[in-house]
Amino acid sequence: MTKFCSSTLAVPQANTCVPQHVAIIMDGNGRWAKKRLMPRVFGHKKGVDALRETVKTCDALGVRYLTVFAFSNENWRRPDDEVSFLMGLFLKVLQGEIERMHQNGIRLKIIGNRDRFSAELREWIESAEARTANNAGLTLTIAADYGARWDILQAVHRLQQSEPDKAASFGEAELTPYLSMAYAPEPDLFIRTGGEQRISNFLLWQLAYTELYFTDLLWPDFDAAAFGAAVDWYRGRERRFGRTSEQVQATSSC
Ligand code: IPE
Ligand code: IPE
Ligand code: MG
């Protein structure tokens, strides 16, 4: 039977269990294509297949939340044709996959700043989220035009607007409901493919105590076996949340 770990800082646990929330930076699409003498965008297309497989794997393992970085605030700096391709691909994936996701009980969430998206893309995002909102299966979050600094700032601004009395003095508990991922526990396991060992402005707040796993595999090559290897590595970690090893072992319940 699958057991889940809590990822809240308040409940430290040993983690012989399946991560409840996995966050992934899907990196390396361009290099994957370049190695095959193909245009970079070919790698992005293949990347969608890897994402589909990862969603299936998470579902099968009992992971409850999968959050993937698809397009960062900084990715607007890429060449115009690559940005347009990525926007078109995002729309196509939403249009082509939402019905199947819904049938599979997936709840889809999109986080990020939507201001620069086309009206059509924004409408599809809204309808995909609404269509799957009541599903009880895996929550798949796609971070698109997302950046953690943007997220923290928008949370502060929304708090100031909605609760001006708290604006002068607020703590973590007052701010976190306004963060984009308020509906999910903090990630237990972070995976970055593509060999870079950096966070690139992804979920800075929520990754405070996440286990960080880096692999040289390029995202289109990331399959169920690679995901399994990351989870196996995660199971070997002792999550202490500031406590001592002895304290953790005395309270471990997983
Ligand atoms: C990640 O792959 C996908 C996006 C950022 C959209 P890259 O496109 O960054 O691939 P590399 O890192 O150049 O190989
Ligand atoms: C991070 O990848 C963002 C996504 C995967 C969407 P990048 O390839 O853009 O990251 P940097 O700029 O090399 O750190
Ligand atoms: Mg990259």
UniProtKB/TrEMBL annotation:
Q: Does the keyword Methyltransferase apply?
A: no
Concerning PROSITE patterns, the annotation shows:
UPP_SYNTHASE (PS01066)
Q: Where is the active site?
A: 27, 75
* Positions bound to substrate: 28-32, 40, 44, 72-74, 76, 78, 192, 198-200
Q: Name one GO molecular function term.
A: transferase activity
Which key words tag this protein in UniProt?
Magnesium, Metal-binding, Transferase
Fetch the InterPro entries from UniProt: UPP_synth-like, UPP_synth-like_CS, UPP_synth-like_sf
- Top EC category: transferase
Cofactors needed by this protein, per the record, are: Mg(2+)
Quaternary context: Homodimer.
List the PANTHER family: DEHYDRODOLICHYL DIPHOSPHATE SYNTHASE 2, DEHYDRODOLICHYL DIPHOSPHATE SYNTHASE FAMILY MEMBER
Please give the function described in this protein's UniProt entry: Catalyzes the condensation of isopentenyl diphosphate (IPP) with allylic pyrophosphates generating different type of terpenoids.
Name of the protein described by the UniProt record? Isoprenyl transferase
Q: Which organism is it from?
A: Jeongeupia chitinilytica
Q: Which gene encodes it?
A: uppS
